[in-house]
Please model this.
Amino acid sequence: GKSITDPCLGWEKTKEMITRLSELLRSSLLSGNANLVPLEDEIELVENFLEISKIQYEDRLHFNIEVEKETEKLLVPPMILQMMVENAVKHGISTLKDGGIINIKTNISDENLQLLVENTGNINTTEGSTKIGLKNIEERINLLFNQNAKFELKEVDNLVIGKIIIPKNLINH
Model:
């Protein structure tokens, strides 16, 4: 197998990680003052974050991202998907010995934008920090969209499914 001391491998991975980290930082700083950002930018941020996490968790983390074309230009609160995905990694994948998978999907359904983050695992209701993260997401959405948007979290067949639903007419650019 691969040895972690193999200088060549280590350096390549480190370089890749640094590049992704700087991209991640740049975009999160750029979006810091924006109320809304194009979904495609947010997806790029999430992708970078997951690639970095993948290096960290090695073969324990897999992910799929499916973005419906018509959702790309819609405007979303910056870091909203990122917060969901971080939650999925932290409380889903990292707690499982064999790791797991994260699926991210965006689509339009009934004039609503749906952002879906699924991860292997269970909702651990005893865990305080999950609750805080999720509370933050919920509060931000309510604040921005005045109770018109929804955030839900449920567990189906060993998958934790987080879903944000935002009426499309609120986020058309």
Remarks:
- The mean pLDDT is 84.
- Residues 136 and 154 are 17 Å apart (CA to CA).
- The first helix runs from residue 7 to 30.
